[in-house]
Amino acid sequence: MQCGWSLLGPLQWIRYINKQVKVKTGKDEEHRGWLLTVDPVSASLVLVNFHDDAVGGGRASVQVVMGHAVQEVQVLQDADQETTERLQSSFLPPRARPLAPEQLGQRRAGVRRWLEENRVPVQEDGEELLVAGALTIMAPYGPEDCCSSNQIILDRVQRLIQSQPAALPNHGVESPNHRAEAPNHSAALPANQPIQRLIQSQTAPPADQSERSSCD
Amino acid sequence: MQITGGNKKLNMATPVSVLRLPKGPDPNSRGFDPKSPRFIALCRTSIPTSAVSEADVEQLPKEQHARSVLRESFLRCLLSVTNKKVQFHMYERVKVEATFGASDIDVMNFQVSDLHTPIGVQKEALIRCQDVISFSFDA
């Protein structure tokens, strides 16, 4: 049963947020809480109720009421500044502490090197990295800092950055361990392996091999 | 989902084999009018976007901004629910608990794991949003 709530539109819905509302969904069913947001696609309301326990840190219980079940929405009161801030910051990801410029530069260089090792074309564009002309990576160059309109490239690059091995403390010194960690690029390891396999196969008794090859 | 009243509550931990409930008509086969009520009720894959009336041409950027702010907030909320225990309140006084998995883009279905039903625990289930009145969880 669709009442007018679902038809209001984003401009009306946004006026209800950060207010304490009472939502009626049935004859005797009511839900109360601080309205965090309204989903524009389904008109669902996200209500938050804070339970401030004496035991460290308040918890919140969240209730999502589906838009199609809403019969009536009533505003009870506005939120004060503190509650508004608490509401708006409840679901944001934790903000990482800002890095110093040299650390940012090192991280940028590290990410760029990893991408180049994986044969991904990357260019440095000031503070940002431009990947394959279609994706931009901004500080601090984590998987969430990639911007692109191409979903496939975005997914690939995000996975790549996520699988980047942890950086070693000394970047300047090219230790043999570091080379071993980047198997694509180290010249020593893969070159030896095919030669070893070749030697092994030549020393194997040829009689067995010919028998195996002849049988169908 | 019909729950017959008066039954003793079963032990919730019994796992249940996969139940395949009847699906609606296949939208690709012939014979189903896309405008028929049955098709709309069972094969809805997306909610139609709201039409903008001609009078609000200058309101359009404001509406789009409001829409994106609201949607982003909602998506972050959904992100925070994943892998949490949620209680679904559905029609016919049905209350079930499950671990939230994901929602689809139009909020038509929820994918959940370990759905506790009166006949046992469903390992994976798809809950139709039209059947849900509300769901709640602890942040």
Automatic annotation (TrEMBL), chain B:
GO BP annotations, alphabetical order: spliceosomal snRNP assembly
Domain of life of the native organism: Eukaryota
Record CDD domains: Gemin7
InterPro entries assigned to the protein according to its UniProt record, in alphabetical order: SMN_gemin7, SUZ-C
SUZ-C domain mapped to chain residues: 1-36
Signal sequence segment: none
GO cellular component term, pick one: SMN-Sm protein complex
Protein name according to UniProt: SUZ-C domain-containing protein
